[in-house]
Fold this protein.
Amino acid sequence: MDPSSSPSSDNKTVVTSSHLSDMATAGQSSGKYYENLDAEVAGKIQRKVGLIYDETMCKHDTPDGEDHPECPDRIRVIWEKLQLAGVSQRCVVLGSSKAEDKHLQLVHTKDHVNLVKTISTKQKDYRRNKIASQLNSIYLNGGSSEAAYLAAGSVVKVAEKVAEGELDSGFAIVRPPGHHAETDEAMGFCLFNNVAVAASYLLNERPDLGVKKILIVDWDVHHGNGTQKMFWKDPRVLFFSVHRHEYGSFYPSGDDGDYNMVGEGPGEGFNINVPWDQGRCGDADYLAAWDHILIPVAREFNPDIILLSAGFDAAIGDPLGGCRVTPYGYSVMLKKLMEFTHGKIVMALEGGYNLDSIAKSSLACVQVLLEDKIIQGSSEAYPFESTWPVIQAVRKRLCAYWPSLADELSWKLINQKIPNPIILISSSDSETEDDPHGLVYQISKLSIENHQVDTASTSWRADLAKVDIWYASFGSNMWKPRFLCYIQGGQVDGLKKACVGSMDKSPPKEIVWETFPHRLFFGREYTARWGVGGVAFTNPLANLNDQTQMCLYRITLEQFNDVLCQENALNLDSDSAIFDLAALQSAENQISILPEAVSNSWYANVVWLGKKGDIPILTMTCTLSAVEKFKSGEVPVRPPAKAYAKTLIRGLVEGGRFSEEEAEAYIDNAASKPL
Ligand code: Q9C
Ligand code: ZN
């Protein structure tokens, strides 16, 4: 069997809980692993997890107190979050320790150690700013030396206790961070390379602990250039870094983070970079890198301990990272690492600059360390389309060293993807030109495969697949990942259940925004999906005083039928179309059509909004008689449920239509105007 073609490759449901196994590279014992995961949900397992936090590390700050993303509050908010959640109380809290010079000098030059040691002394008061300005992205003050020594020493201490077996795992909540620091240079907010010092300490100073192989996982959004260089020729350390690279333009710019950088001499093959070429990567992208690179390699390498350069700047909301990993995503990534080394994992904080995101992500991780299970949550179903080529390139470059990377990923797997971020008014021509990896070919291949699998496919599908329409969305479907669930299947924020998707999973051919002279309003008391508050409708009748923003997706009429079914909670497998060519024709004449099969549902009314480039524009909303009921008060008009409003705003903002403020004002306005 093709190793990666199992569960999700039939074009049915992708639900979050099976998302893990869907993406796992089979051929390894993933099945067993996930059974364990379920068994452990009972929560009986309590592990010994060490924590180090010391307020002294907050004294490292900008010299004149100006704002900086790498601020003292970063570690404070993490510590407070762990306390408020009652999680630190379940851990072993250790005192911090200063690193010893001889341990620092395992990876740093004597000069560098001396510089950091003396940088905060009175004698350096006058030269400190100058020294900092000559370094790349470094500030220094009177508290920097001590904080740097405590950060490195604390990671060493947790690593030692975990290696000894006194702790199962631990988290050193430290700053300044470390992974950019090179042998003889501070950079990127980093003074000493905390994780590298700890790794080298275990390998070189503590042979008694029996640690012979160390896996360093660096999920900070930036490349761990310092760590990479320190173990470049060392086969005892497998360094894995996933980071934004942007063809070498993302910090720390250059080629160091390229996937071709695999190590040298005896260390060849023991350095793995996964370089994203765009921001916006989220859980699905990271998990794809886990399932198809890191986890299989880790199984082969079989490390004795894992050190985790745990920056949280790939988290959603981070001002520097621009990615979207959720606390749930971090918990799944960490949980997957616990398969190895009997869960001996040492987490060290690196970057992460959104205080709320880093606190929540840290909490999620410590919960995983304590309970050995993932937290509740969900994420987008598929990686971005640009993610698979990166993963394939890495696998190809490294398969000589790691045989588990040798198999080609199947078409079915790599067709599970979200089209790359919003191309406003794209022409099909430019899409073809921008398609160096043959997406068009892949899609045509996919539809061939689907036809073989698709036994429910009847002639109406073939006929309606030939007709394009614009589906105009004004509700949560404006948020593209949400709408894509109706096409590709899956589950994102705000969906209680996974969608099955359309039979034809090809992404929309174009996406554009337009304004229509119809009234947007919010009604109903409560919905199962969104809770208390109204959901969006648009008045089927046009009124030139009204304006509704709509996101238009160009899909086939077949797909539109499947969207209509899912929106109205009907099964997909009907043997006749709900909205066929005849209906389309009468919609044009009658403005709106109420298909029989959905006539009792809330979004059953298919409304003709005109044509765009000869292609009909359709939306779905409530009936005119329902509008009358809203007007009379028989059914209440209500402002949108909170979660629902959030999704609408997300759609408008991420779709590039509005700024956050404009989107909020737009929704508020529609919610407050009387019908
Ligand atoms: N144009 C860590 O996350 N950015 N360091 C400098 C200069 C530096 C990040 C931008 C980012 C360093 C540990
Ligand atoms: Zn970073």
About this structure: Residues 137, 177, 180, 188-190, 220, 222, 251, 311, 313, 350-351 surround Q9C (ligand 1) (CB under 6 Å). The chain has 23 helices and 18 strands. The longest strand covers residues 548-556.
